[in-house]
């Protein structure tokens, strides 16, 4: 870190200098500079102490990332003993990608710290450094949380790899979640059919959810097939009712979609967005990359609602399993 070239300066003096050169509010500037002050004076020692504090948080982020890396290595050993199935491979690849992103974020923290504390040779530069150090602290704390979550999920993934019961219980829980979502959509559709003037935004959202549930059903079938093959390889029992329960979800979703289709057509922006969503989801095949699907669905919802705002309460986002937990399940974290 370069030295505070200004030496010790009264806080009031720096606040005045910064506000003269920027459009910032004086009280806001004062708050940002507070960590750099000691007894109403901005001092090199206070700046150095702040940088040290930020460095320690970054070090914690690095440690958490190292622990996540070790958990990844341990899970990789378990993957090596698992059969070559999509249900394993998709989880394995997602963890690789997430860990790579995490390591990149940690590396960026160190570079940002160096840039933030370089050339503290003007009041504005000192102020900008204070703001940047705060942002770096926030980013580092987020990395710590992300790394901790990743480590926990990797440990759960390893346990999932090592236990047929965990795998089967997880699949059953996902089918339960899909069934609950299908039931919720059916209730929404029934309410819409009873309405004299059904809200277009709610109809659009229900239509989106039926489409996403179709993808969920396909994904559940593919996962069930892989887990059944795995169980047969290991001589383990596989739940006998899974396929029938998935069929029930599919039937209920199809009924909801048919009921929506029997109502007034969704034209305009809502209709266009549904057409675009249909085109995007038609290319989705199991094992589903739920992060991309969620982004596609979120974009369709946001774009449609921006052009045709709802006139009544829209269906809750948490009634459909689009953002449904399939991504969580695929990581083996329960």
Automatic annotation (TrEMBL):
Region (Disordered): 300-334
Domain of life (superkingdom): Archaea
Protein name as catalogued: Halo transducer protein
């Amino acid at each position: 870190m370069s030295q505070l070239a200004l030496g010790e300066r009264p806080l009031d003096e720096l606040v005045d200098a910064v506000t003269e050169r920027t459009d910032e509010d004086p009280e806001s500037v004062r708050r940002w500079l507070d960590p750099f002050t000691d007894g109403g004076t901005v001092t090199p020692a206070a700046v150095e102490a702040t940088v040290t504090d930020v460095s320690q948080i970054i070090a914690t982020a690095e440690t958490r990332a190292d622990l996540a890396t070790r958990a990844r290595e341990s899970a990789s050993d378990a993957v090596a003993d698992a059969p070559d199935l999509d249900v394993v491979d998709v989880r394995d690849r997602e963890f690789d990608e997430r860990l790579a992103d995490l390591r990149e974020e940690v590396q960026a923290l160190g570079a940002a710290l160096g840039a933030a504390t370089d050339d503290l040779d003007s009041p504005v530069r000192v102020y900008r450094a204070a703001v940047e150090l705060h942002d770096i602290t926030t980013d580092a704390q987020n990395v710590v949380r992300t790394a901790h979550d990743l480590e926990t999920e990797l440990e759960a993934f390893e346990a999932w790899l090592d236990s047929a019961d965990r795998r089967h219980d997880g699949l059953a829980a996902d089918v339960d979640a899909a069934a609950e979502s299908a039931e919720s959509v059916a209730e929404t559709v029934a309410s819409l059919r009873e309405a004299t003037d059904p809200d277009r935004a709610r109809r659009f959202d229900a239509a989106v959810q039926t489409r996403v549930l179709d993808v969920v059903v396909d994904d559940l079938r593919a996962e069930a097939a892989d887990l059944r093959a795995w169980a047969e390889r290991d001589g383990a029992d596989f739940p006998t009712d899974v396929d029938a329960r998935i069929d029930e979800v599919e039937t209920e979703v199809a009924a909801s979609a048919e009921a929506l289709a029997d109502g007034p057509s969704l034209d305009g922006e809502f209709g266009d967005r549904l057409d675009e969503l249909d085109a995007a989801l038609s290319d989705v095949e199991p094992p589903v990359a739920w992060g991309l699907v969620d982004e596609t669905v979120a974009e369709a919802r946001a774009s449609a609602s921006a052009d045709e705002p709802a006139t009544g309460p829209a269906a809750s986002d948490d009634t459909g399993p689009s953002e449904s937990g399939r991504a969580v399940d695929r990581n083996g974290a329960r």
